[in-house]
Amino acid sequence: MWWSNRRAPNEKIVFFSNKTENYIQGNITGNLFKKNCTTVLNNILLRWTSIFSFRIEDNNPLKYNFAETVKINVKDSPPSPQVTINRDMVKEGDSVTLREGDSVTLICSAPAPCPSLPPTLSWTPRLSDSVTVFQENDDHTKHVFSVMTFTASHLLHKQEIKCTAVYRLQADNSERTSHTNVTLNVQYSPKNTLVLIGKDGSLTCSSDANPAVNNYTWYKVTGSEIEVVSYTQSLTCNITEVSGQYYCQAQNEHGLQNSSTVQPHCESVKAPPTLIGAAAGAAGMILTCILLTIILKKSCTRQNHGSETQETGELTLTNQVNTPEPKEEATYGNICHQLGTKGPDKM
Q1: Which residues of 76-106 are buried (b: 16+ CB within 10 A; e: fewer)?
Q2: Is the pLDDT confidence value at 283 over 90?
Q3: What is the DSSP string of 208-258?
Q4: Which residues face 1 on adjacent strands?
Q5: pLDDT by residue (tens digit) across 313-325?
Q6: Residues with Cβ within 8 Å of residue 190, at least 6 apart in sequence
């Protein structure tokens, strides 16, 4: 028989093998002659969290209470399964670090407190066929193991793998589910290396790698000759030339990859207009302002003796033209300002 909270005010005989009706239904599967008193208790409820002790009785004077006790904690939800990985790989918390091309073995284990109803294990996503094993541990507890083996790929980087354990209960044929997630951190050499061309004709090397690319190399191809021109991620137009073709090489600790060659378009980039300095004299300034006026087909509003007038076409200058400071920026607004005018708001 099994006692609950023996020698306490609320003690009860919860299971007696000679009775058909007990507080807790079950049966003894052990053999007393072999010192095996294994008992299976069915449909355990939350209220049966307690300290249990064992007693044997016979028709002869043999009656004995065992001093050893066992505390049973009953929970409403099953424990989460545990996920382990190859011994030579690193698992930190919920993240698993591996390298592309490695053979990876994930093992999911879950306790089976009811041997007749072991949990069912499954993987999401299912990367390969899995093998399920039912095993008894040294302490006679039982576990279910599911083993899944696959090859690591850069396409699996940051992939979340979930192991789900489904427990079928005796009561009402209901189920309880628990799961554990791990995230794959796959390290790989550069992939998809290519050259991006900016609007200004600059070249930028782009590559996907884990860890990130730590070394860029630019090569210039002229006929059959190849030369290194830079070790930066981007090339500007003052480095590249229209006459050559270029490609980049991206490298991290796991390998390298070259892009295809490209032809920059730096000839489409034109220098902004500049204002001739004070040393050139007022005549140079007059020609520059007239040139800008013709190209933009805009007008300047100038102030003449306190009254504002609008002029288009040819620009008339007066003796009010001032020479700009040498360090003043040569913008359209500054030019009109030096002519004693105010340009349109959206010039």
Answers
A1: eebeebebebbeebebeeeebebebebebeb
A2: no
A3: EEESPP-EEEEEEEETTEEEEEE-SSEE-TTT--TT-EEEEEEEETTEEEE
A4: none
A5: 433 333 444 444 4
A6: 207, 208, 209, 213, 250, 251, 252, 255, 256, 257
